[in-house]
Every structure is written in structure tokens, then in C-alpha cells.
Amino acid sequence: MPTPRKGNVEKISTEELTRLLVTPPLHQWLGLELKEAEHGRVVIRMPYRQELLADVDSSYIHGGMLATLADVAGDFAVITGVGFAVPTIDLRVDYLRPARPDMELMAEGNVVKFGRQVSVADVQVTGDGKQLLVARGLYSTAVR
Amino acid sequence: MPTPRKGNVEKISTEELTRLLVTPPLHQWLGLELKEAEHGRVVIRMPYRQELLADVDSSYIHGGMLATLADVAGDFAVITGVGFAVPTIDLRVDYLRPARPDMELMAEGNVVKFGRQVSVADVQVTGDGKQLLVARGLYSTAVR
Amino acid sequence: MPTPRKGNVEKISTEELTRLLVTPPLHQWLGLELKEAEHGRVVIRMPYRQELLADVDSSYIHGGMLATLADVAGDFAVITGVGFAVPTIDLRVDYLRPARPDMELMAEGNVVKFGRQVSVADVQVTGDGKQLLVARGLYSTAVR
Amino acid sequence: MPTPRKGNVEKISTEELTRLLVTPPLHQWLGLELKEAEHGRVVIRMPYRQELLADVDSSYIHGGMLATLADVAGDFAVITGVGFAVPTIDLRVDYLRPARPDMELMAEGNVVKFGRQVSVADVQVTGDGKQLLVARGLYSTAVR
Fold first, then answer.
1. What ipTM did this prediction achieve?
2. Tens digits of per-residue pLDDT, B104-135?
3. Which of C7, C32, C22 is nearest to C105 (CA)?
4. CA distance C90 to chain D (A)
5. Which site among D91, D96, D136, D140 would you substitute to test the C interface, given the most C Cβ atoms closer than 10 Å to its Cβ?
6. Which residues in chain C belong to E strands, given as ranges?
7. pTM of the model
């Protein structure tokens, strides 16, 4: 049995993490799914639904919804290490390519730094494995 | 009759701007409303709906949806000056206060700079008049 | 005598604020000057020096030095309200126009929100009164 | 002889890249050194000098100067692929740890996306190999 790395003590079970992800009304409506979770890293899937479309020609998914997915992925990456839900302080999103309706959308969040006051996470959202956006979020991890 | 300021020539009618706002499936689902529009500035309202909630206690609206609203407001502020829909290049959101379900949510977008390649807009989202977030977005205004 | 607004109690004297500004070696080298200061707002001047130039043709000031000036202005706007030096958590800068060597450079920092954990400030840097960049910074205001 | 990958044609020689780096007055004053360069990636060293200090106790390097270094690293990562100097459109910096005076400071810039209009680069600045900041910059790569 491997010795856990420093900071790798399990702060939250996958069951509880999943419950936090699927319970909020918006996450339910979006149908978010936790695909992978480990200390400081999650992968979340967002299925297609027609209401996500940004334009009348149904040609691409709204960037705001990709930002929402990115925010959630960064947030949950942080939650794996702190064990409780954390508010977003700020979020920055760079759009690289449009998200087409038939793409399989996945967001991977990785913690850059766990801090006592604030934590930083990097996120990439992919569509069929191609990078669609990169994001970086700051989350409040001060104990309340 | 006042002489229009430089750059103040009407590039898009309010009717066309409204059509661009209310036609996309996501905007329709959100029920976005154009409240004010002039050269370089718009005010957009996002009504409450239960699916926007971020938590099981129904205590606040999801930050991603506020970012979506902010993105739209920045985008449409830019559209008033260029006359056509523009893609978001990057977006940065600072969350100041939680958005409660009973708040009247409004986003005001103001163009900081109209550029030939890219344009910058500032946005604030208010709830019952109180500042909930500030955002800044960069939009691609290169003529295609 | 007017009743001070909530949070408007003087946390730091202009003398102490000036001392904090002019003492650090980098600020000295840059020759930063405090031109105005009130609760939540400062104006800081950065004089020209040849080492600030970004290119061989001496045509413009390096963007990094404008970001430095913006960071300082945001920081000192926050200091007016908390009374002590605060570390920058993150900084975002949008460049609007190049800074020419003969321009009078001024940065105005305004606090958007004083928070217990973090505070947000907006900054604009002008050259001869024209907006050259806008920036937004997040500063750690948790009491140590 | 290997077939160059698409986009991997040498757009600029290491000699010319070095000349662009060491010629500007600010870069000279900072003593910036090009340590590594390949398509889409550079490593740049910034040596210590006393004027970079942020505080009277000489305990850490000014964040603005680290942002300057990050900006240059992102910029030069982009230059490797476009072959000419490019202006910064926006820059975002997250500070993770203070930079101590005795640390060996290195910035690594990696291009996230080469675009026809704009390009995105990620940067990390390390001190003695420890991550001090992460940054992301947007650069104008429209052909003039």
C-alpha cells in the first residue's frame, strides 16, 4: 500500500463529490457528470442540449456555458483538496475554437496552488479531444 | 438636430439588436431582455428561473450564469458600434457579492475601446441595484 | 464636522502612504510620485526614463512597466482603506494604446470592493490624459 | 532530413530572436538572457539587481517586474512562430509565492494557440525551480 503524498489525504469521498456536483439545480439541468476525480484534479462532462446553442443557425455552443463548465471544473478540482464547496473569486477564460453541437465536451480542472486563503486552478475544455478553451480561476479556501 | 459624434453613426437598429439578442436558443431559454441600447452601451435584464440556482439550499444564482450574462452584455455593447455579431476572445469576471434568487438582475456593458482588430468592454452586473460582479471582455472586431 | 462614512475612517496618513510609495528600491528607481490620495483612490505619476523603452527605435514605453505602475496604483488605492501594505494576488491588464516617451504618465487606482479577505481595484493609466491601459487587480486584505 | 511539421518552418533564427531580446533599453537594463528557444517555446532568465526589490527590507522582488518578465516570455514564445515582434493585447498574472532576492529567476513561455489575428501564451516564472507565478497573455499576430 503506497504512502499517501503530503496533502493527499482524502478530504472528500467521490460519493460526496458527486453529490455536490449533481445536486444543484443548474448542474442538474446541464446534466454534468463527474468522469474522473483525484487529489487536485477532476474531469467533468457536459452533454449536449439544444438550449446551449448560441446562434440561430445552431452552429455552436454559447461561450458562457463553456465558461460555466470551466468554473465548475476548477471549483471541483479545488474541492478535492479542501473537502467543502468553495466560492469563485475570479475567473478568466480564453476562447480558442468554437464548440460544435456534436462535440463531446469535457472539462479538466487541475489545481495550480492550494492556499490557505485562496487557491488557483487551471482548466481546459475540450470538444472531441480538441482544446476549445483554457481558463484559470481563483477560489476562496479560507476556512469559514 | 444634433450632429452625430464621430463613430456614433447608427450601425445597427434597435430592432435588429433585439433580434440578435432574443433569437439564440440560450438567450431565449434565459429570457434575456434588452432594456437600453445606445452607441457603445447596453443594459440587459436576466429574469429569475429556478434552474439558475447554484446550490441545494436555493440560496444563490450560479456564477457561471452571471458570467454568461456579463459576456452577452459586453458583446452587445460592442455590437452597437460594429453592427454585427462578434465572437468573444477572452473574458474575466470578478465576483463581488452573491446573487440572491429574488434579486432583479441587470447587466450594463460599456465599450472601453472600439478597435479595428479587437474591442474591449467593461460590464457590471447588479442585483436590485447592488454591484454583484465586474467583468471585462475582449471581442474580435476584425472585419471578416 | 461631518460624520465619517462607514469605512471612511482614516486608516493611514498621507505622509505614511507617501513613505510606503517612495521607499522601495524599485519605486525609487522609477521615481513614482503620489499626486492624489483619498479613501479608496490614488493617482500616481511615473516620470519618463530612457531605460523604460521597449524597442530600439525608442518609440514606446514597455508594457511591463505600465503593468507595474498599474499594480502599484491598485495596491495603493487599497492601502488607503486598510492602512497597511497588501500583496497582489492577481492582476489583469488590457493595453489600449502605446505609451510614447514624451507622454506624461499617470495611473489612477480606484477600489471596486474592500473585502475582509480580498479587495478589488480598477486602474487606468493615461498618457497626456489619453487612456493607455485599463487594469484590474486583486489584493489580499486578510489581516495577518 | 526531417520534413518540418506544419507551422514549424523556422520563422526566425535564434540569432535574430536574441537580438530582439537584448536590444530594447528595458531588456538591457534587466539583463534578460535567452536560455532556450524552439517553435512555440522560450526560456528567459532575469538576473537579480537591487533596483528590482519591492520593499525596504529587501525581502522580495517587485511583482510588476515578474509580470514584465512573464510578458516578455509569452511574447517571445509567440515570436518564435510568427517571426516578428508582436504587441501584447492583454496579460493576466497570478502570484503564487514571493520571489526572494537570492533566487535564480527563469520564465518559460509556451504558446497555447497560434492564431491569424491573436495568439495565446502561457507562462510560468520559477525561482530556484519553484513556481512563483503563472500568467497568460494575448498577443496581436495579425499581419500588418
1. 0.92
2. 999 999 999 999 999 999 999 999 999 999 99
3. C32
4. 4
5. D91
6. 33-38, 41-46, 88-95, 105-113, 118-127, 130-140
7. 0.93
pLDDT per residue as tens digits for the range C69-99:
999 999 999 999 999 999 999 999 999 999 9
**Do residues D68 and D24 lie in contact, with contact meaning Cβ atoms separated by under 8 Å?**
no
Q: Measure in Å the smallest separation between the Cα of B39 and chain A Cα atoms.
A: 23
C-alpha cell at C130: 489619453
**Residue C85, Cα to own-chain centre: how many angstroms?**
13
In C7-87, where do the E strands start and end? Answer: 33-38, 41-46
Into which CATH architecture does domain B14-140 fall?
Answer: Roll (3.10)
Cβ-defined contact of D142 to B117 (cutoff 8 Å): yes
* Contact (CB, 8 A) for D42 and D80: yes
Task: For chain A, 144 residues long, give each residue's pLDDT as a single digit of tens.
Answer: 343 344 444 889 999 999 999 999 999 999 999 999 999 999 999 999 999 999 877 799 999 999 999 999 999 999 999 999 999 999 999 999 999 999 999 999 999 999 999 999 999 999 999 999 999 999 999 975
3-state secondary structure of D85: coil
Please state, as a whole number, how many other Cβ atoms lie within 10 Å of the Cβ of residue D15: 8
Residue pair B105/B114 in contact (Cβ under 8 Å)? The answer is no
Q: Please state, in angstroms and rounded to a whole number, the distance separating the CA atoms of residues C144 and C141.
A: 9
What residue type is assigned to position D85 of the chain?
A
Cβ-Cβ contacts under 8 Å for D31 (sequence gap 6 or more): D46, D47, D49
Burial A33-45 (b: 16+ CB within 10 A, else e): ebeebebbbbbbb
Q: Residues of C with CB below 8 A from B134's CB?
A: 112, 120, 122, 136
Domain ranges of chain C: 14-140
Disruptive mutation site among C86, C90, C91, C116 for chain A (greatest number of A CBs within 10 Å) = C90
